[in-house]
Amino acid sequence: MSAPGGSAPPPATRRHYDRLDPDKVTATLDRLREPITRSFVEPRHLADVVLEVRAVVGQVTREPGAAAPWHRAVRIGSRVAIGLLVVLIVVAVGSAVRTGATQVGDVRALDWLQIVEAGVNDVVFAGLAIFFLRSVPDRIVRRRTLGLLHRLRSLAHIFDMHQMSKDPESLLPLGEGGGNPGGDPMSRAELGRYYDYCSELLSLVAKVAALCAEASTDAVVLETVSEIENLTNGMSRKIWQKISLLRPAPLA
Questions:
Q1: Which of 10, 112, 146, 162 fits a 20 to 30 Å CA distance from 48?
Q2: How far is Cα 162 from Cα 194, in angstroms, rounded to an integer?
């Protein structure tokens, strides 16, 4: 029963709005690719790059990092190795102590110091090995995630190269520095839409980058995501500067 005056939706309903949905991101990419393919007849390959971004989303969906079966297998293997290492260290230290205790009458203080030093070294090296084994699964996930993020960074630069090849000055009158005979044959409206699509796609690249690190707390991964967001924001600002050149000058 709902409370009078309308109550907040149940937690099961709100739960869908606390993280990015890969299906929604894919649907948005498809919705943008369709008008790009329909509006621009010439082979500008912009729609093909959209498919590459879509493929990254597919990789994130198919192999969800820490939830993947291979990651669970690696994590179990690392825990088993840590357990065996702890057992070996306990046996080694216990054997050294037992040996020293049986020879307590013959062992001098300097010999005891050497035994203790060897035990401490074993414990320190074991601690380093345990730390390394414990971090192996997370390192594998980090390497995979950084690979996807590096690919997204490259795709962002490709989108930027597409918009850089379209010069808005070719649409300006000759007296205003335009009229380039080798300019792009696109009209003012088409070029404006093209720039807008590039800006939207750069924004989606940042969203896919955030999707790659949705459940990650790795500082390196989060920093890389932030760098990609700053990169795409800077590229979008350059695009909107070009869009402002397409606007007609105000009448005197």
A1: 146
A2: 9
Q: Which H or E element spans position 110?
A: helix 109-164
CA–CA distance, 54 with 25 (Å, rounded to integer): 8
Q: Is 13 a member of any domain?
A: no
**Beta carbons of 188 and 171 less than 8 angstroms apart:** yes
- Distance between terminal CA atoms of the chain? 64
Residue 12 domain-assigned (yes or no): no
Residue 236 vs residue 75, higher pLDDT: 236
DSSP 8-state assignment for residue 104: T
pLDDT at position 252 over 50: no
Phi then psi dihedrals of residue 180, to 5 deg: -65, 120
The model carries a pTM of 0.67
> Is 46 inside any structural domain?
no
Tell me which residue range forms the domain holding 130. Answer: 29-39+52-174+184-246
Give the containing element (helix H, strand E) for 160: helix 109-164
Q: In angstroms, rounded to a whole number, what is the distance separating the alpha carbons of residues 213 and 62?
A: 14
Contact 228, 205 (CB under 8 A): yes
Residue 195 inside a domain? The answer is: yes
Question: Which pLDDT tens digit goes with each residue over 83-126?
Answer: 887 887 777 777 766 766 665 555 555 566 666 777 777 778 87
